[in-house]
Amino acid sequence: MADLIPQFETEDLQGTTTQYTGTVGTSAISIPTVAGTGIAECLIRCPTQSPNTRRLSYSFDGGTTFSILSPGEYIGWSLKGSPTQIKIKGNVASVDYEVILNREPA
C-alpha cells in the first residue's frame, strides 16, 4: 500500500488571489467593491505611514464590529462561511491600506 498515489490535493490551484491597495477615510468601504465568490483567506495590512496616529479598522461581519490595526500591523486569517466582502475604514482621512484576498473558485 505504500506505493499508492495520495488521494488528496497536493497543490492548491483553485480560485484566485487579488491585491487591493489605496487609502480610506472614516466611512467604511467594501473590499472588493462588488461581491463575488467567497473569500477563503485574507491578509489586511496597515502600512507604516505618517503621522503614526493613523489606524485602520477592519470587519469580517459586514461592518457590525471592527478591530483596529496600527501602522505596521497586519492580520492574516482563514475566513469561515465564505463571506464575499470585508469592510475597512480609517480613524481619519487618507489612511493607507493593503489587502490580499484568496477567493474560492467561481
Order of strands, main sheet, comes to 1-8-3-6
Helix content: under 10%
Low-confidence stretches: none
Strand % is 35-45%
Shape: elongated
Characterize the largest beta sheet: strand count, sense, and whether it forms a barrel: 4 strands, antiparallel
Rounded to the nearest angstrom, the radius of gyration is 17 Å
Distance between the termini: 36 Å
Oligomeric form: single chain
Number of helices: 0
Quick rundown:
The chain is mainly β and 106 residues long.
Question: How would you characterize this protein structure?
Answer:
- By secondary structure, the chain is mostly beta strands.
- The protein has a domain at 30-103.
- It is 0% helix and 42% strand.
- The protein contains no helices and 8 strands.
- It has strands at residues 16-24, 29-31, 39-45, 56-59, 67-69, 74-78, 86-90, 95-103.
- It has a 4-stranded antiparallel sheet, with no helix packed on it.
- The chain starts with 15 loop residues before the first strand and ends with a strand.
